[in-house]
Design brief:
single chain, 480 residues, alpha/beta, six-stranded mixed β-sheet, five-stranded parallel β-sheet
Length: 480
């Protein structure tokens, strides 16, 4: 499998090089040159344990890693997850690292049983192990620069903390992440971890990271790498749980197809589902759910992708107005016309808006995608409803996905992605449903009162570049 850029100037890249490249050198995003059709394997795959399923899917995209090495990387990536006991058809305990619960009218895919209690762990534990494997083979080092709206930062840190030949610089918008999210990042004092509290929004942080990667001499000299969902390996690891959840729900319900509702701001998680659909997983609809920062839901309902100001909400990981992974969808919509993608992205950079038409013969922009928006009032109401009716506590991000799902009419069962533990957002839960609905996680409680470290910096790319350059060659920050 080879990889190419959405901007058309980079192609024929093997998987390991694509992982280290992160953002393509022409400023685009990397995609596989083709999507394998796996419809003839679905029945066999539906019987596999999660790690074996992950191996079968991932090996199609990373054929430059020997099978035995890939199996070890995958197995190691799920060691820190906390299995949840379900019951199989025979009534036996069936531990699942990613359980699917039937709650009221929906099926909830719990993705938050990893070390930082968020869905980002599924991909970033894998990516951390992948980086360590590739760097060990190449006898090289990597300086990761990552923007976070909340969960990516802590998951990335926990994916690479203490690893040889890796440093990580995390930019989070100061005062715009939840207290738990900030605590999870800033209590990690390993010498290869640098938390930067940026005086700006997530979009500002993301823009700075992309700017650093576009400066190719700087990127090359400092060995920069990416763990944001601009890195294809992130998307690949997330594809697996769409297959896993679909198999379990189709078996339970007898349905031939399923739909997914995905709370999203950066279009990464839902693009993993889109990839699964391209591979042949029987997906009816992918329901894109946003909060008040609704650039994506507005686009898929109107065809206008127009930037506006970021609105702080109860679901801060979705407080995004420029969705990085959207460019991957644009490339597929343009049927691989990279010149058209370049034109769209240049227009958006200049004007803050582009307008896209459906393909000839289509009634909508995409037959798989639907989109909706849940504001703060609707989010709180959904948390309260599920707490009171079913005794189940949703975090605010998951509640956005459930709220939008309930407003949709589909002919298939809807699987809602639960992207974080409600323990990460106690203020929102209490506001919605009271103290009785709160959830405590031992790993979060243990962080309270620990010393913290962060570096407040202005929203200036030069200041960030200087900070990274100053610290990325510090021998004490590489653990050997």
């Amino acid at each position: 499998m080879r990889y190419c850029s959405t901007r058309g100037q980079v192609s024929d890249i093997p998987f390991q090089d694509a992982v280290l490249m992160g953002l393509a050198r022409d400023g685009g995003l990397l995609l596989p040159e083709s999507f394998p059709n796996v419809t003839d394997r679905l029945e066999a795959w539906s019987k596999l344990p999660y790690a074996d399923l992950a191996f079968e899917i991932m090996r199609l995209f990373c054929d430059d890693i020997p099978d035995e090495d890939l199996r070890r990387i995958i197995a190691k990536s799920y060691e820190r997850f906390r299995p949840v006991s379900e019951t199989d058809d025979a009534g036996n305990a069936d531990p699942q690292i990613i359980p699917v619960r039937d709650v009221g009218p929906v099926h909830l895919l719990e993705l938050f049983h990893g070390p930082t209690y968020a869905f980002k762990d599924v991909a970033l534990q894998f990516l951390g192990n992948l980086f360590e494997y590739i760097l060990g083979k190449q006898k090289s080092e990597l300086n990761i620069v990552v923007a976070t709206s909340g969960d990516t930062g802590s998951a990335a840190i926990h994916g690479v903390r203490g690893r040889k030949n890796i440093r990580i610089f995390v930019l989070h918008p100061a005062g715009r992440v939840s207290p738990v999210q900030e605590m999870q990042m800033t209590t990690v004092l390993d010498p290869n971890v640098f938390n930067i509290a940026l005086d700006g929004t997530f979009d500002d942080a993301q823009s700075i990271v992309k700017g650093l990667f576009r400066d190719l001499p700087f990127k090359d000299a400092l060995h920069l790498g990416a763990v944001n969902s601009i890195n294809w390996a992130r998307i690949l690891a997330q594809v697996v749980y769409y297959f896993h959840a679909a198999f379990r729900v189709m078996k339970r319900t007898g349905a031939k197809k399923v739909s997914f509702s995905v709370p999203t701001g950066n279009f990464g998680d839902i693009f993993a589902g889109y990839t699964a659909a391209k591979m042949g997983l029987p997906i009816d609809k992918l329901i894109l759910a946003t909060n008040e920062n609704d650039i994506l839901s507005r686009f898929f309902n109107t065809g206008s992708y127009s930037r506006s100001s970021v609105v702080p909400t109860l679901s801060p990981s979705m407080d995004i107005q420029i969705a990085s992974n959207f460019e991957r969808w644009l490339f597929l919509h343009a049927q691989g016309d990279a010149a058209q993608v370049r034109t769209w992205m240049e227009t958006f950079a200049k004007t803050g808006e582009i307008k896209i038409e459906p393909l000839p013969g289509e009634d909508s922009l995409d037959p798989w995608l639907r989109a909706g928006r849940a504001d703060t009032t609707q989010t709180l109401a959904t948390i309260r409803e599920f707490s009171e009716a079913y005794g189940y506590t949703l975090d605010p991000h998951s509640a956005v996905g459930v709220s939008v799902a309930l407003a949709q009419k589909t002919d298939s069962p809807i699987i809602c992605l639960c992207t974080a533990s409600p323990a990460k957002f106690p203020d929102a839960v209490i506001r919605a449903a009271g103290e009785k609905a709160t959830v405590k996680e031992p790993g979060i409680e243990a962080l309270k009162g620990l010393p913290t470290r962060k570096f407040p910096l202005p929203n200036e790319i030069k200041k960030i570049a200087d900070f990274v350059a100053e610290h990325c060659h510090d021998p004490a920050s590489i653990l050997r």
